[in-house]
Amino acid sequence: MKDVLSVILFSTLGFALIWGSAEFVKRLGSKLPPDPPIISATAKVIAKREEKKLGAGTKYYVTFQLEGDERIELSAEGEQYGLLVEGDKVDLTYQEKKLLEYLRL
Predict the structure, then answer these.
(1) Of 72, 68, 67, nearest in space to 95 by CA
(2) Is 58 in contact with 51 (CB distance < 8 Å)?
(3) Distance (Å, rounded) from C-alpha 100 to C-alpha 36?
(4) What CA–CA distance (Å, rounded) separates 105 from 90?
(5) b (16+ CB within 10 A) / e for 81-92
(6) Following DSSP, what letter does each residue of the chain receive, concatenated?
(7) Which residues contact 51 (CB under 8 A, 6 or more apart)?
(8) In sequence order, which residues have a C-beta less than 8 Å from that of residue 91 and are 6 or more positions away?
(9) pLDDT of residue 1
(10) Which residues of 67-78 are buried (b: 16+ CB within 10 A; e: fewer)?
């Protein structure tokens, strides 16, 4: 009899723990901010720069001039950075301040 009660008790506690955790995750997920939008635009490469940090590697940045004379500096991967040349006209896709991809025109 004690074994049956123990199984029922632990089963009920396990169910409550799992259900409570699932509810917590569901509520937490609804409070997270939405992902920033992914934006596509036509632009011209106007500058490139590298930022070298001791022990942290190199970060790469490319400045683009969008249509309407707006400028934006985006972080880029090393290969993206290496293949872009000042003066290139590109269709680019970015999210916040990160270059996702581009197509040279």
Answers:
(1) 72
(2) yes
(3) 13
(4) 5
(5) beebeeebebeb
(6) -HHHHHHHHHHHHHHHHHHHHHHHHHHHHHHSPPPPPEEEEEEEEEEEEEEEETTTEEEEEEEEEETTS-EEEEEE-HHHHHH--TT-EEEEEEETTEEEEEEE-
(7) 58, 59, 60, 61
(8) 40, 41, 42, 102, 103, 105
(9) 67
(10) eeeeebebbbee
| Band (11; pLDDT cuts 50, 70, 90) | confident
Q: What is the domain class of 38-104 according to CATH?
A: mainly beta
Render pLDDT for 15-73 as a digit per residue (tens, 0 to 9).
767 877 777 767 666 677 788 999 999 999 999 999 998 888 999 999 999 988 899 99
Backbone angles phi, psi at 19, to 5 degrees: -65, -45
Report residue 17 as tokens. 């723990």
